[in-house]
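Dear colleague,

Thank you for sharing your sequence with our group. We've completed the structure prediction you requested, and as agreed, I am returning the results in plain text so they can be pasted directly into your records. Please verify that the sequence below matches your submission; if there's any discrepancy, let me know and we will rerun it promptly.
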Amino acid sequence: MQRASCRRRHRLFGVDPLTPAAFVARLALDDYRELTPTIQLVLEGLLRAPPWALDLRPVATEDDWQCLYTLVRHNHTEGESTHGGAMPVEVTRGIVVSYR
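Please find the predicted structure tokens below.
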């Protein structure tokens, strides 16, 4: 990884409730700062849509928040972001609460 990213001026780390505390502490020591906003994507319809056809909008209503929770939960149960295992539901709830 180091060789592949040595020319970049930035690093991206995904930090969540399962990230080891020592790693988070090291990021804090190195002046790491969290970036916002978080963007979640939902695909409706065709996979290839022109950019002007995208509908980006903030999560505003309770129904929006429930939809976001459902999206994040599906992501956490499919196993891709957790390397094959489902993330506990409490972690999903905590992440969505932190988004709010």
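Summary note from our side: The chain has four helices and no strands.

Kind regards,
the structure core
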